[in-house]
Design goal:
Strand content: 15-25%
Distance between the termini: 29 Å
Order of helices and strands: EHHEHEHEHEHHEHEHEHEHEHEEHH
Helix content: 25-40%
Number of strands: 12
Structural class: alpha/beta
Number of helices: 14
Radius of gyration: 22 Å
């Protein structure tokens, strides 16, 4: 809880390239009304050159390009009482030394999930119309097919692999459409699934019966390479596979092999492993692969949502109210 007898001192540390998008002037002005700025905004490199600036800092605001919260940084910041991250994952910046201090850390994953869900929904709807497949066939044949057979947006099945924050948002948005939504998620119970309007199923049925499968599983040891030749081969004719999670959830060499043999399938890959793919990767040349450069997450003006979430959490901290987006140590390891 914030000390109501004094104004908290804050420091903003993140990369310059996206700072103005994440923390636009109006958001910084709002923040400046409730905290005292310790110094102008810094990058992690600038902070390493002048770590003494952390002395007296109560709240660290950050985003992309965040400093690692290791023992050295923490030793320089004895008053640090909260870290607010205007980005999705905190896994790369939190350390055992940080968690041992018991300092709350906020993630803006909920804000970043919104554009990912919107992108996924758009691709799902295009996939139900098999827009990508028909577009490439029209380009090759230079003619229009007569009455093409597509699943469409009525009575078709959409599969969600994972019902985390983004998967749930996608499920909620799909409730506005006349489709059946199946989901595979080992930690979601039947009651939660019913509330989302989805039917839980096994992973094989998901791939066998769905016209579109959208991947939202976190990258964990048990999910690395989860989607490979066996599962992708089960997809119905003309199906679409979408991945906006992490590239390594797919066993890419195996998936590439199936896509070569199944030109009827379409893969929409916003993430790959490695990212970007190697220059000679078949992902660049396979006609049934749509590669997008990790743009499902917050881009441009969308990034302001992240800074706004941090601003709102900071206001709660100052008022002594519970934080809504604090991350527990166990959660940090399961978020992308």
């Amino acid at each position: 809880m914030a000390d109501s007898t004094r104004m908290l001192t804050a420091l903003l540390v993140m990369e310059e390239e996206r700072r103005a998008d994440v923390y636009p002037a109006r958001v910084l002005e709002d923040i400046g009304r409730v905290v005292h700025w310790r110094a102008p905004a810094l990058t992690s490199d600038a902070l390493r050159r002048d770590p003494g600036v952390l002395e007296g800092v109560d709240v660290l605001l950050t985003g992309w390009g965040a400093p690692v919260l290791d023992a050295g940084l923490l030793a320089r910041a004895p008053r640090l009482s909260a870290v607010l991250v205007a980005a999705g994952s905190v896994r790369h910046l939190t350390t055992p030394d940080f968690w041992a201090r018991g300092i709350p850390v906020v993630s803006a994953a909920a804000a970043n999930a919104v554009p990912v869900a919107e992108f996924s929904l758009a691709q799902i709807l295009l996939g139900l119309k098999q827009v990508h497949r028909l577009t490439r066939e029209v380009a090759v044949s230079r003619s229009f097919p007569r009455d093409p057979r597509v699943p469409g947006g009525y009575g078709s099945r959409v599969g969600l692999l994972g019902l985390g924050q983004i998967g749930r948002l996608v499920a909620e948005r799909l409730r506005h459409f006349d489709v059946e939504v199946l989901a595979c998620d080992p930690v979601t119970g039947p009651d939660a699934a019913r509330e989302l309007g989805v039917r839980l199923t096994g992973i094989e049925e998901l791939f066998t019966s769905c016209d579109v499968v959208s991947v939202h599983a976190p990258l964990l040891p048990e999910t690395e390479g989860l989607v490979g030749e066996r599962l992708v081969s089960l997809l119905p004719e003309g199906a679409t596979l979408i991945n906006t999670a992490r590239g390594a959830v797919l066993a890419e060499p195996e998936v590439i092999g199936v896509l070569r043999d199944r030109p009827d399938l379409t893969a929409v890959l916003d993430v790959t492993w490695p990212e970007p793919p190697e220059p000679r990767s078949p992902l660049f040349t396979l006609p049934n692969v749509l590669l997008t450069p990790h743009l499902a997450g917050a881009m441009g003006r969308e990034r302001a949502r992240l800074g706004e979430l941090v601003r709102d959490e900071l206001h709660r901290l100052v008022r002594g109210e519970p934080l809504r987006h604090a991350v527990e140590p166990a959660q940090a390891s399961t978020r992308a």
